[in-house]
Amino acid sequence: MNNRLCAMFGIEAPIFAFSHCRDVVVEVSRAGGLGVLGMARAHPDRVEEDLRWIDAHIGGRPYGVDILMPAKYEDVAEVDIDALPPEHVAFVQQLLDEAGVPRLPPDQADRAARELLAGFHMTPRESLRMLEVCLRHPIKLIVNALGSPPRDLVERAHALDIKVGALVGQVAHARKHRDVGCDLVVAVGTEAAGHTGEIGSMVLWPRIVDAVAPLPVLGGGGVGRGRQLAAALALGCEGAWCGSIWLKTVQSELTPEIRAKLLAAGERDAVLTRTVTGKSCRTLRNAFSAAYDAPGAPEPLPAPLQNMLWWAHGRTRVERARAEPFLTYPVGQLVGDMNADSSVRQVVQDMLLELAETKERLDAMLD
Ligand SMILES: Cc1cc2nc3c(=O)[nH]c(=O)nc-3n(C[C@H](O)[C@H](O)[C@H](O)COP(=O)(O)O)c2cc1C
Question: Which of 15, 18, 143, 217, when mutated, tests ligand 1's pocket best, judged by the most ligand atoms within 8 Å of its CB?
Answer without folding.
Answer: 18
